[in-house]
Write a structure and sequence with these properties.
Elements: H1 5-15, E1 20-24, H2 28-34, E2 43-49, H3 65-68, E3 114-115, H4 119-126, H5 129-132, E4 138-143, E5 152-159, E6 163-176, H6 182-189, E7 197-208, E8 211-219, E9 233-241, H7 250-274, H8 291-303, H9 321-330, H10 336-344, H11 350-366, H12 378-387, H13 400-423, H14 429-433, H15 454-457, H16 503-529, H17 536-544, E10 559-566, H18 568-575, E11 582-590, E12 594-603, E13 628-640
Parallel strand pairs: 2-4
Antiparallel strand pairs: 1-2, 2-3, 4-5, 5-6, 6-13, 7-8, 7-11, 8-9, 9-10, 11-12, 12-13
Helix pairs in contact: 7-13, 7-16, 8-10, 8-11, 9-13, 10-13, 11-12, 13-16, 16-17
C-alpha cells in the first residue's frame, strides 16, 4: 500500500512553487499505460498546470481511406432488407461504421489542464541524492512533454527499502495492426536468453461507447499468442446512464422517478414537522386531471369486472425480451390498487390527491364493489373493510395520502418488472425479489372484526389507562402517532392505521427497483448489440444477487456500471478476425539480479488530452489502409539495492 505522505510534504516544500504536486489516484491515461494492477495505489504526480485556453475537443480519430470512401453504389445498400440482421455485432472492430466512439473523451475533464516538463529536468530531480533518500513506499511520477528524441511522456521513481526501481513511459508512434507481433514485442522486451517469460494480455473490443468486451489471459510461452478467443477470461463492461434511457423502457423509469419524488416529499414534510414548521405536504408528479372525470374513472374502476390478464405466451415458448417489454407496457392491469395508481398519480397537487382519496373512500362505502383488491397493501385493506362496513370512513391528514400512494406505486412498479422477467423466462421471482423488495406489510392479528362507527369509536372506560379503554379507528388519529426517527408511525398503537412510512425501508425498496431496472437495461443492451440469449439468466443472477446500491434520488446523471463475466464461446464467433480496439501486453522476466517489466499499450484513439498529445501527432496516420494504433511503451526495471 502506498505510503508517501512524508515524501509528498518534502517535495511540496521544495518544488511546490514551480510545479503542481498531487498525492492521489493516478490519472486515467497513466492507468491505461501501465495497467490497473500496477496503478492500484495512490501516487505522487509532479506536473505543470495551465488553465488558460483549455480545450475540450477530442483529438481526431485515426483516419482510414475506407472511412473517407463515399458510397456510390446504391445496389449494395441493405437498409430495410430482410437479409440484414438488426444485431450490430458485425460492427465490432469495424472502423468504417461510426459508433460515436470519439464523441466521448477518454480522459477526465481536469486532466486537460495537465502540462509536462522536459525529461531532462525530471531526471535531474530524480538523480539528486536528497530525493532518493526519501523515506516511504510507493511511486513518484513526473509528467514530461515528449520533446526529447524518445518522446518521453512520464518518468517513475518507486521508493522501496530493499529494491531500486525506475520506470519510463514513451510514445512509440502510429503502427498498423499487422506490425503488432509476438516476435517484435519479445525483441523490444529484451530479455536474456533462457530467462522464463511471463506474459499478461488484455484485448478490448469496443461494441459501442457504453459496452466493452475485455479478454485477458496469461501465458508462459516464449512467443505468446496475442489473440486467443478460447482459453481466456471474458468480462463485459457496461454502463447504463439514466439520461440515455430509450423509449422502450422510459415509461417504467418515469414511474420509478415518481416514487422517488413522492418519497422525497414525505421525508421533507416530516423533517419540517420535526423542526416545528407547520405546512401541507407537496405532491408534484401529476399532469392534472379533472375531478369530475376522476370521480367517474374511480367509480368505473371499482364497479367494473376486471376480466383476465392478457395471455401473451403459451407457457413454453421463449419470448424476445424486447417484445415482452412492449407487452408489459400494454398489458391489462387487473388489481384494483394497481389501476388506482394509474389514476391517482395524475393528480396535479396535494389538495387534489386528498380529494381523490375522499372520492375513493366514498365510492367504497356507497358502491357495490365488483373488483375487490387482491394486493396486500394498506389501501387494499381500507377499501375491503369499508366495503364490508367494518370501518368508519377515514379522513386522511398530513403525509398519509402520499404514503398510501407510495405503497401502491411500489407494488405496481414491482409487478411490472416481475411480468417482464418471468414472461421472458430470464429470471425467477425469488431472485427478483431478493432482500428488501417485498412491499407486503406484516400481518396484523389484532384488527377488530366487528363493525366500527363514529359512535362506538370513542366509547370506553374513561377510568382505565388512556389508550387502553379507547378503541381506535381510521378516524381516530392523533399527533401522538407520529414518532421521531425514520419510522413515522407508532407501532404500539392498537387498531387499524391509515398508513405507515419508514424512511429506510422505502429507500431500500426504491434502490432494489432501480437495481432491477438497471438489470433490464443491461440485458437489453446485450440483446440489441450482441444477441446472446443464452447468457441472460446468468447475467440476472450476477447482477441481482448483489446488494442494491442505496439511492436517495434518481437523476439523468446517475449511472450503473457493471462487470459481467461471460463464457468465451458465446462471443467467439462475433470477434473472430476482428482487431481489438485497444491492447495491453505486459511481459515480465527476471533473474537473480534484476526484474524487467515491459508493457505495450495500443489504442485506436490517442487517449491523452489534446494539449498533452500535441507532440504525438503524426502524418503517418493516413498512409495505411489497415487499422492503425497509437502505441505507448512502459518499461520498468527493478534491482536489489
Amino acid at each position: 500500500m502506498s505510503n508517501l505522505a512524508n515524501i509528498y510534504a518534502e517535495l511540496l516544500r521544495k518544488y511546490g512553487e514551480n510545479y503542481t504536486i498531487t498525492y492521489s489516484s493516478p490519472p486515467s491515461y497513466l492507468v491505461k499505460f501501465i495497467g490497473a494492477r500496477e496503478a492500484a495505489a495512490k501516487i505522487i504526480l509532479i506536473y505543470h498546470e495551465n488553465r488558460k485556453g483549455a480545450t475540450t475537443t477530442t483529438p481526431t480519430k485515426l483516419i482510414l481511406r475506407s472511412e473517407r470512401r463515399v458510397a456510390t453504389d446504391s445496389a449494395l445498400d441493405l437498409t430495410g432488407s430482410p437479409l440484414k440482421d438488426d444485431c450490430i455485432v458485425d460492427a465490432i472492430g469495424d472502423l468504417s461504421l461510426d459508433l460515436n466512439i470519439v464523441n466521448r473523451n477518454p480522459w477526465k475533464p481536469e486532466e486537460e489542464f495537465h502540462r509536462g516538463q522536459s525529461a531532462d529536468k525530471a531526471r535531474a530531480i530524480i538523480c539528486t541524492e536528497q530525493f532518493q533518500q526519501g523515506d516511504g513506499l510507493g511511486s513518484v511520477w513526473f509528467l514530461c512533454d515528449g520533446s526529447d528524441f524518445g518522446q518521453t511522456l512520464m518518468l517513475q521513481y518507486k521508493f522501496n527499502p530493499t529494491h531500486f526501481s525506475r520506470g519510463i513511459v514513451q510514445y512509440s508512434g502510429v503502427l498498423p495492426s499487422y506490425m503488432v507481433t509476438s516476435q517484435s514485442l519479445v525483441r523490444q522486451h529484451g530479455m536474456t536468453a533462457g530467462t522464463p517469460l511471463e506474459t499478461y494480455i488484455e484485448n478490448c473490443y469496443q461494441v459501442n461507447p457504453h459496452m466493452m468486451l475485455r479478454f485477458n489471459w496469461s501465458t508462459s510461452a516464449p512467443l505468446p499468442l496475442l489473440v486467443d478467443l478460447s482459453a481466456c477470461n471474458v468480462i463485459l463492461n457496461q454502463t447504463f446512464r439514466v439520461g440515455d434511457c430509450g423509449p422502450l423502457t422510459d415509461d417504467f423509469l418515469n414511474q420509478l422517478k415518481i416514487l422517488v419524488y413522492i418519497r422525497e416529499d414525505i421525508v421533507s414534510y416530516y423533517s419540517d414537522e420535526k423542526a416545528g414548521v407547520s405546512r401541507d405536504p407537496v405532491y408534484r408528479c401529476g399532469s392534472g386531471i379533472d375531478m369530475d372525470e376522476l370521480r367517474e374513472s374511480i367509480n368505473k374502476t371499482m364497479t367494473e369486472v376486471s376480466g383476465f390478464t392478457n395471455v401473451f405466451t403459451d407457457g413454453h415458448a421463449e419470448n424476445d425480451i424486447e417484445e415482452v417489454v412492449q407487452q408489459a407496457k400494454l398489458r391489462r392491469v387487473t388489481d384494483l390498487t394497481d389501476k388506482l395508481w394509474e389514476l391517482l398519480k395524475c393528480c396535479s397537487s396535494y389538495k387534489d390527491l386528498k380529494i381523490a382519496f375522499n372520492l375513493l373512500f366514498q365510492c367504497a362505502v356507497r358502491c357495490n364493489i365488483v373488483n375487490m383488491p387482491t394486493n396486500k397493501n394498506r389501501l387494499a385493506e381500507i377499501i375491503s373493510n369499508l366495503a364490508n362496513s367494518r370501518l368508519a370512513m377515514p379522513c386522511l391528514s398530513g403525509a398519509e395520502p402520499l404514503e398510501l400512494l407510495l405503497e401502491i406505486g411500489l407494488e405496481k412498479v414491482y409487478k411490472d418488472y416481475e411480468f417482464i422477467f418471468t414472461e421472458s423466462k430470464v429470471c425467477s421471482i425469488s431472485l427478483l425479489k431478493g432482500s428488501g423488495t417485498t412491499t407486503e406489510p406484516a400481518p396484523s392479528n389484532d384488527l377488530p372484526k366487528l363493525r366500527k362507527s363514529l359512535h362506538n369509536a370513542v366509547r370506553g372506560d374513561q377510568t382505565q389507562n388512556a389508550g387502553a379503554g379507547i378503541r381506535k379507528t381510521l378516524l381516530h388519529h392523533t399527533a401522538d402517532s407520529k414518532q421521531s426517527g425514520t419510522k413515522f408511525q407508532n407501532d404500539d398503537m392498537s387498531g387499524f392505521k391509515n398508513s405507515s412510512f419508514d424512511e429506510h425501508d422505502s429507500m431500500t425498496s426504491i434502490s432494489k427497483l432501480f437495481q432491477i431496472h438497471s438489470t433490464l437495461e443491461h440485458i437489453l443492451m446485450i440483446h440489441i448489440n450482441l444477441n446472446l440469449p443464452n447468457v441472460y439468466a446468468d447475467v440476472c443472477t450476477q447482477l441481482l444477487s448483489k446488494p442494491p446500491r442505496k439511492l436517495e434520488g434518481i437523476d439523468d446523471q446517475l449511472s450503473d456500471v457493471v462487470e459481467i463475466q461471460l463464457s468465451a464461446h458465446y462471443v467467439r464467433e462475433h470477434l473472430d478476425g476482428k482487431d481489438p480496439h485497444s491492447r495491453q501486453i505486459t511481459m515480465k522476466s527476471q533473474n537473480k539480479f534484476r526484474e524487467l517489466t515491459t508493457t505495450f499499450y495500443f489504442n485506436v484513439e490517442n487517449i491523452c488530452p489534446p494539449e498533452l498529445a500535441q507532440c504525438f501527432q503524426s502524418d503517418d496516420k493516413e498512409l495505411v489502409k489497415e487499422r492503425t494504433y497509437h502505441a505507448w511503451l512502459y518499461r520498468k526495471i527493478r534491482t536489489l539495492k
